[in-house]
């Protein structure tokens, strides 16, 4: 494992993300409030550059107590969407919302003195 | 003030992919896979272009001056809509409302020459490791639903002229199945007669989204000409949310999943039960972009009913599935979630000789060559056949010595290299 400094925390807006190429890997770093999440830029579906997609709000469908649809709404969860085919993953869990087994590969990430550090194999 | 560099040495920040991204950067993760295919002959039997950005060039090729003037008059309208087209841009939801930029637009920079459409196709072919790509239109896939058959015929003629005379000569690796205006059988026959001798025309495409019985007697002269040419007829499916059955679906997902199969199920059924393969035994047929799972379904349904109601299909000498096993199918969008079912499908359709790889690029549900190479139940020769050798046989393509274009790095990869960072090309 190697610790690699990839950038400054201040460069990543809250709710935003950056994608870094380093040491033969591509990793997306996502900021949600004070927390960071790092996912490999590789979609488990077809190998697309998942982290270079855009973040969209997760869409839900609200039902009445008697199960009628009240239409679509944003749940407040954020999803990164693969620009190749549209597979989407929760930026905090790395999981596909429709299949627990389909998920992104994560890496340890932390902040030291304002710098973002990734711990990568190799 | 903290003056530390935000991008440390050896780190390159990759941009978000959008409608202006270069195809070579967008598909960079496919390049490593393509490198593994250097000694494979790979033919994309169903690739596409988006013709609306070039619509004024296309309608300028209308032979009929009245229609040409009618189409060109739309230039003066706000937004210059594609005159005479029946596509409904406001209901084209394929890009999932911005989630898939390349389906929205390929707005990247291209050199002045060759034509932008040619450059985009070359970049896609090189990046994915393709030797040939069949280049078919996109919004025109619904042209068979145009209420004016004469307009379908006119646009079909114009598109074929533009493609065959203006585009194909610029890149020999681009091949085409010309558009058949199937609502006007005489016009369709004229297009076959006009383009059959072109070596880059490898077949004839009927857009399946239409209400026409393919066994009608009005098509027999057309089929005879197609059989005589030795090139296949293809039925390229599509969607039409205006179809009364499809209107029952409230989500694009539902309608799209069913519609792309629905039309080819109907045409295949009429094609087989009315004995078209018996009437034209040398005519080769291809069934495009319906995936594969529908084929064994139809085989079983038709065989079952045929054995009980043989008197209603007197031209048949064998079971329907036996005719269907001799037809050709394209892979995309290949259903891969259940490999046991997929393997059974491959066996049912005799995929080793009848299946043709297709990307459907640049559409949202495109497949890469790894959709075939990663299938665990195929042997090496079967993969080679499906990826390109079956198409070489069907399209009469010479398998070249140099089978793979050399993919050039895109602007992002070049910028990264300038800073000493090699951008990953997938893993």
Could you give a quick summary of the protein structure above?
Chain A has 122 residues and is mainly β. Chain A is built from no helices and twelve strands.
List how many beta strands of chain A DSSP finds: 12
- In the CATH hierarchy, the third-tier topology of chain A is known as Rieske Iron-sulfur Protein
Q: Which segments of chain A are poorly predicted (pLDDT under 50) over 5 or more consecutive residues?
A: none
Amino-to-carboxy terminus distance of chain A? 5 Å
Radius of gyration of chain A: 16 Å
Helix count of chain B?
A: 18
User: Would you tell me the overall average pLDDT of chain A?
Assistant: 97
Largest sheet of chain B: 8 strands, parallel
Largest interface: A-B, 34 and 39 residues
Per CATH, the architecture of chain A is 3-layer Sandwich
Q: Overall pLDDT of chain B, averaged? A: 94
| CATH overall fold name of chain B | TIM Barrel
Global shape of chain B: globular
CATH superfamily of chain A: Rieske [2Fe-2S] iron-sulphur domain
Kindly name the structural category of chain A. mainly beta
Strand order of the largest sheet of chain B: 2-3-4-5-6-7-8-9
Second rung of CATH, namely the architecture of chain B? Alpha-Beta Barrel
How far is the N terminus from the C terminus of chain B?
A: 40 Å
Structural class of chain B: alpha/beta
User: Given the structure, what is the number of helices of chain A?
Assistant: 0
Q: What is the multimeric organization of the chains shown? A: heterodimer
């Amino acid at each position: 494992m190697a610790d690699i400094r990839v950038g400054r925390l201040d460069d990543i807006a809250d709710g935003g993300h950056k994608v870094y190429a380093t040491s033969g890997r591509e990793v997306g770093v996502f900021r949600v409030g004070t927390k960071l999440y790092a996912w490999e830029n590789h979609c488990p579906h077809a190998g697309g550059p998942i982290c270079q997609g855009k973040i969209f709000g997760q869409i839900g469908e609200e039902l009445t107590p008697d199960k009628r649809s009240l239409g679509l709404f944003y749940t407040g969860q954020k999803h990164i969407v693969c620009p190749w085919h549209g597979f989407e993953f929760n930026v905090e869990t790395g999981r596909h919302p429709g299949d627990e087994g389909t998920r992104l590969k994560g890496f340890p990430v932390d902040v030291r003195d304002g710098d973002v550090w990734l711990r990568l194999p190799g | 003030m903290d003056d530390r560099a935000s991008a440390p040495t050896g780190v390159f920040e990759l941009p978000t992919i959008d409608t202006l991204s270069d195809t070579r950067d967008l598909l960079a993760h496919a390049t490593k896979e393509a490198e593994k295919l250097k000694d494979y002959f790979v033919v994309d039997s169903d690739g596409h272009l988006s013709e609306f950005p070039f619509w004024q060039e296309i309608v300028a090729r209308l032979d009929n001056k009245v229609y040409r003037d009618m189409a060109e008059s739309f230039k003066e309208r706000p937004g210059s809509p594609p005159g005479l087209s029946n596509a409904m841009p406001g209901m084209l939801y394929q890009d999932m409302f911005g989630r898939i930029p390349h389906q929205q637009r390929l707005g990247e920079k291209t050199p002045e020459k060759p034509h932008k459409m040619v450059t985009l196709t070359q970049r896609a072919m090189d990046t994915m490791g393709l030797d040939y790509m069949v280049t078919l239109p996109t919004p025109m896939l619904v042209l068979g639903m145009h209420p004016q058959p004469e307009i379908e015929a006119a646009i079909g003629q114009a598109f074929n002229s533009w493609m065959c005379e203006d585009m194909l000569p610029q890149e020999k690796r681009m091949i085409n199945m010309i558009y058949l205006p199937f609502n006007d059988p005489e016009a369709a026959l004229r297009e076959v007669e006009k383009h059959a001798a072109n070596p880059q025309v490898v077949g004839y495409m009927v857009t399946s989204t239409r209400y026409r019985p393919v066994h009608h007697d009005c098509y027999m002269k057309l089929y005879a000409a197609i059989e005589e040419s030795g090139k296949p007829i293809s039925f390229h499916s599509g969607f039409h949310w205006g179809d009364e059955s499809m209107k029952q679906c409230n989500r694009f997902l539902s309608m799209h999943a069913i519609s792309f199969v629905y039309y080819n199920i109907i045409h295949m059924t009429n094609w087989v039960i009315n004995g078209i393969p018996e009437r034209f035994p040398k005519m080769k047929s291809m069934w495009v972009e319906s995936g594969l799972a529908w084929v064994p379904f139809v085989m079983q349904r038709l065989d079952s009913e045929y054995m009980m109601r043989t008197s209603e299909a007197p031209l048949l000498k064998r079971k329907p599935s036996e005719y269907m096993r001799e037809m050709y199918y394209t892979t995309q969008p290949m259903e891969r979630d259940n490999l046991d079912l997929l393997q059974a499908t491959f066996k049912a359709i005799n995929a080793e000789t009848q299946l043709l790889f297709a990307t459907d690029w640049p559409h949202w549900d495109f497949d890469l060559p790894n959709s075939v190479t990663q299938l665990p139940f195929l042997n090496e020769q079967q993969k080679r056949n499906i990826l390109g050798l079956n198409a070489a046989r069907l399209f009469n393509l010479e398998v070249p010595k140099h089978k793979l274009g050399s993919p050039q790095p895109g602007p992002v990869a070049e910028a990264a290299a300038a800073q000493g960072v090699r951008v990953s090309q997938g893993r």
